[in-house]
Specification:
By secondary structure, the protein is mainly alpha-helical. Helix content is 42%, strand content 9%. A hairpin with a 4-residue loop joins strand 1 and strand 2. The N and C termini lie far apart (50 Å).
């Protein structure tokens, strides 16, 4: 599925394999291998491709793409920013692109949310004045 979707997206924009490769900072040979099904892009490259075309990563890797699906509103604004390492005292560095997208500046406060059942944790930028009705 990934091979067909990469070929579809590349051809949709009339890109050569070399141009597609340059767009995602990989070699032309990698793109050729992906399209032939000989190999697969790593998860971060899949995320960058899906993000670039504003489609959900699950759609990109599991479903055949059609013209209508590429412009779906359901995936607009969703991102995978990469991985971070947790320091000894629990500190994490939020990737620069994520800070830019969400306008996170030094001194901003973030709410930490978690779901034990699903093993998920999230950060949300909030204005505590607005949160408690004081602004």
């Amino acid at each position: 599925m990934i091979a067909e979707n990469i070929r579809f997206l590349r051809k949709k924009e009339n890109l050569s394999q070399q141009e597609f490769a340059e767009l995602f900072d990989v070699s032309r040979q990698s793109v050729a291998k992906w399209e032939s099904g000989e190999s697969l892009p790593d998860v971060m490259t899949c995320a960058r491709i899906a993000d670039h075309y504003e489609i959900g990563m699950d759609v990109f890797v599991r479903m055949p793409l059609e013209e209508e699906e590429i412009n779906e509103e359901t995936s607009h604004g969703r991102h995978i920013f990469g991985m971070v390492k947790v320091g000894e005292r629990g500190q994490v560095v939020i990737p620069k692109f994520a800070r830019e997208v969400f306008n996170i500046r030094p001194g901003d406060r973030l709410m930490v949310l978690g779901d034990e059942a699903k093993g998920g944790i999230a950060l949300a930028k909030v204005s505590f004045g607005k949160l408690f009705g004081k602004d």
